[in-house]
Amino acid sequence: MGIAVFASAQTISFDKTTWDYGTVKNGADGQKFFTVTNTGDKPLIISKVQPSCGCTTPDWSQDPIMPGKSSKIKVVYDTKRTGPFQKLIEVYSNDPENSRSVIYIKGTVDAADTAGTTAADAKLNTASASVKIDATVQKEQTAKVKERAAKK
User: Fold this and answer.
1) Is pLDDT above 60 for 6?
2) Contact 13/37 with Cβ under 8 angstroms?
3) Less Cβ around it within 10 Å: N or C end of the chain?
């Protein structure tokens, strides 16, 4: 006859381990949330959340997550940094089997707001063309005045 021994402990579980931002505009809201659930039977404590670089800022509650309850880890990526990104965030807890868990964010930040850039370029091009036209008209008028003066 065997004896079953059930270990009781806090157990960390995530709703997802990767947040895919897709393609976002430069300066867009880079905030995402990971849901952390304690699937164990003792309080879970997240002691530290460490991003892989300064472009990612985490925020989380220091309060214990009671058995069966959930909490959120907020992750903010700096969307002023353009191009593709994939960052890892280490989550340290008192889970005896997973004291270090890893979650990821990934996506691409567009280099510029193309509609805004196009509108700005159009205004600049229009202003530049207007100045060129004004200079051409002035030269033509000056030439006509000189022609009249020469005929007199």
Assistant:
1) no
2) yes
3) N
